[in-house]
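Case study B.
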Amino acid sequence: MAGRVEWVLLAYRIPREPSTPRITVWRKLKRLGVAQIVDGLVALPLDARTKEQLEWIADEIIDASGEATIWVGRLGSVCQERALASRMAASVAEEYQAVVDAAQETADDAAMSSRTLARLRRELRRIGQRDYFPPVQRERAHQAVGTLANAVETTSR
Amino acid sequence: MRWATRAGCHVDRAACAWLIRRFLDSDAVFVFVDDPDEVPPDATAFDMPGAELSHHGGDCTFETMLRRHDLDDPVLWELGKAVHEADLADERFDAPEAAGLDMICRGLSMVLGDDEVVAVTGPLFDGLYEFRRRALMLGRDPA
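Model:
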């Protein structure tokens, strides 16, 4: 993450009521793993996919009588950029850690394990979709789920 | 007729191009542009911000096309679930094939141009359509 990431930003305002579109938009932004810069301004590292996803959400905000614009930009200093990337990494790190904990907790319970394994694999895929600056916990989570998978396979044999 | 969409053809656009050729306009010609402003005046835009045939109310463009063109073939709607999940992954539907479909289309767009992606994914969607059609008739997955 040393240098000069380009970002795509969504600046938006959406009416407080009705609340359904506002909540839908927020959920979608969460799923994409956006960094909230200030109220009504969110950012993702720029690529064709992230830009497109934010553009769809912008359209949806406008459909809901809100205002939305898409910007492409760069942070003023490497230091600020690193801080933003670290913040995003820390947020997915927490999610990965939760997977590690869940995998280790169920490892002793053979009956529970196989169902948990399927759930955690789905969860890893979900987190992977919003992991732009992989933290060390990513590897740990994948290893923990791998260990659980081996345990499940051993008990079912 | 000419149809315009944005360059970088991923699953939703590839699926729409297939749908257009197979069900709406067998002579369709596709134009790929970088910006909505570049859509030729005689072309119908799809899967672009601001276009009528685009994401609406949580639907992906493929689903919008089915709605706007009154395509009520249940097989197409089954296919739409896979396209929706491959494009949006919002877990509105259970479509386990979606993750693979997304990866295949993204990979193809890395090694092929947009026209070629449309050409290559045609038989892919033909096959998925046929699988879904038989599954619907049989009430179970076909052999």
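Chain A has a mean pLDDT of 93. The remaining cases will be described in the next quarterly update.
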